[in-house]
Amino acid sequence: MIEKLKNILAKKNVENWKLNVYKEDSREFFFLEKNMDMNRRVVFEEYTLTIYKYLEGKKLSFVSFNIEPTMNEKEIEELLNNEINNLKYVENDYFPLIENNKGNFNNGKIVDFNDILKKIYDEIYIDYEDINFFINSSEIFIKNVEERVINSKGVELSSLNSIIQIDYVITYKGDEEVEINDFIEFSDYKEGFISNRIKDKILNAKSRSHCKNIVSINNVPVIINENDVKEFFEYYIQKCSADYIYKDYSNYKINDFVQKTSEKGDLINLNLISDMKNSTFSNNFDEDGVLFEDKNIINEGKLINIWGDSRYSYYLGIEPTGFAYNFEVKGGKYNNIDLRKSNYIEIMEFSDFQVDYITGDFGGEIRLARYFDGSSILAFSGGSISGNVKENESTFNFSKEVNQLNNFIGPKSLKLFNVNISF
Questions:
Q1: pTM surpassing 0.85?
Q2: Strand (E) positions, 286-340?
Q3: Cα angle, residue 157 at apex, residues 151 and 163 outer, rounded to 5°
Q4: Where are the alpha helices (DSSP H) in 183-288?
Q5: Which segments constitute the Metalloprotease TldD/E C-terminal domain (predicted)?
Q6: pLDDT in tens, 134-171
Q7: Among candidates 260, 261, 236, 259, which has minimal Cα distance to 249?
């Protein structure tokens, strides 16, 4: 298919182009409790072609479209003719294509489907001590993925990686019957990772099934954990991107402090990690063919580097880092015990915690939380929190302890001191 496309592009005198190839071979397994309900194999290829036309006045027109693997030469030519015609309706500021980057990378183990399925199944369905719960259902997706980038300027890059995704539902029968859903994604199987995660979720489900009602709590620090911490720091990751800065979604500038500082709060140290082990997003290049390098983005609260793809980096006059997915935030100065010495609310499960990456507003409804009044802990459900990142950044504290959540390594817990709590 690749050679066929090259020949057709030459025949149509298309001089500037980029081809992204995505091939996936996966097995999908669906379980009801411990019994397999269905399984299937999914194999597909996706070819995304982008054609460019340079215009007068430092302008550029480009369009992207998919080529189906089953299309014959005549069908591809007809589609290409139509897209070449569409170029006259598009005009952007000029940016150059990446040139001459080459490499063949294997970023992870290409997994044996049956072997990895048995390991995952045995971990999900181990004999847990608590008899009041069961795994209601689970879905296990195991994928081997090949990605390629080729362009008319000599870029030829390819990579292999594995992706493992697990979606499961726990049912717990306590004072009330509750269900908790969880999603896990990683690249390399590590014994104990899945079962430890499920044990934590069982404890949360148990607490939720015995929750008490709380009328009102005010002026209490709020602790969030794991995926919600990742979502919180996504605000800073986006604000440091060339895309956001060029579009005026962010006013960050090199050498400026991106957060207000105080003696009480922790300072952010944010790094771009090119090849993060066990991340399903690990790759050595982005979709334009930019080769990744590790890069310090924020150091002690100060912006050191802007990250971005080739287009928006060119607009800002900086070297592109590539469109990155793997980030690390260093831990703070307090450990998990110190963060919980005085009264607090710790949110264990949100219905959906979200941060607006432009305004910094955040919020979510509480499915399970623990309130510590200085002497005892009470689990409760209901209510919501809201706040703004900028109104918390001079005082927030991160845990020293860090963990990895797929493409993010960062503090396990984050303590916020300026949060509205509603019941």
A1: yes
A2: 295-299, 302-303, 327-329
A3: 125
A4: 193-209, 226-239, 242-246
A5: 219-412
A6: 889 999 999 999 999 999 999 999 998 889 999 999 99
A7: 236
